[in-house]
Amino acid sequence: MNIYYIGGSPCSGKSTVAELLAAKYHLYYFKVDDFLDKYTQMGAARGCEICKKQTCMRAEEIWMRAPLVQCSEEIAYYKEIFSFIREDLGKLKADNVITEGAAYLPELMKQFHISKDRYVSVTPSKEFQVSHYSKREWVPSVLSGCTDQEKAFSNWMDRDVLFALEVQKQCREENYCSIVNDGTLELAQLASNVEEVFRIS
Asked: Which of 78, 45, 47 is CA-nearest to residue 166?
């Protein structure tokens, strides 16, 4: 099986790029976010600390924490569920797959010997991230249980900025390609840049 991985952080264009390349090259598209609830339950059942914690936390408890704490737990969470993702990828009946998700941390890619022409991270600039999240209709429902939704949103954005910086740092350390989307690139050009890294034919 030939797998192309797109990591990075939310609101960076990962999903759109994966969809464009999947359509262009007839690749099977595996979106990690579609299975996060399942992976969290699996992790909780196996006693994974962060997965267990996430199954019982209220919005107030999640978003009113310090952004650095949120970021650290997000990274730990992806490490807990990574084996579940790999297991599902291994079950796919497809020769060529493109998959994307924030769970694809560069250090995990290196640990499992993913070559540098099979992985790229896409992260947004802070300004691009905040402007796009602000337009998403479902954001208020995520924060509806918070007593101070403005602060909760600020914490959320700061968490994702910290996460993006960590992903960029890991890419430098592990010699993987890191693309920062500041909104000046058309999505077609962003997809072309990712395609160039993958050298898909």
From this structure: 78
> Could you report the per-residue pLDDT of 32-59, keeping only the tens digit for each?
999 999 999 999 999 999 999 999 999 9
- Cβ neighbours of 72 (radius 10 Å): 16
The full DSSP string for the chain is: -EEEEEEE-SSSSHHHHHHHHHHHHTPEEEEGGGGHHHHHHHHHHTT-HHHHHHTT--HHHHHTS-HHHHHHHHHHHHHHHHHHHHHHHHH---SEEEEE-TT--HHHHHHTT--TTSEEEEEE-HHHHHHHHTT-TTHHHHTTT-S-HHHHHHHHHHHHHHHHHHHHHHHHHHT-EEEEE-S-S-HHHHHHHHHHHHT--
Assigned token pair, 140: 């208020």
Torsion angle, CA of 196/197/200/201, rounded to 10 degrees?
Answer: 50
Q: How many residues does the chain have?
A: 201
**pLDDT tens-digit map of 165-201:** 999 999 999 999 999 999 898 889 999 999 999 988 6
Token couple for 6: 């797109």
Classify residue 150 as exposed, middle or buried by CB count within 10 Å of its CB (0-12, 13-18, 19+).
Answer: exposed
CB 67 within 8 A of CB 162: yes
Q: Is the pTM of this model over 0.85?
A: yes
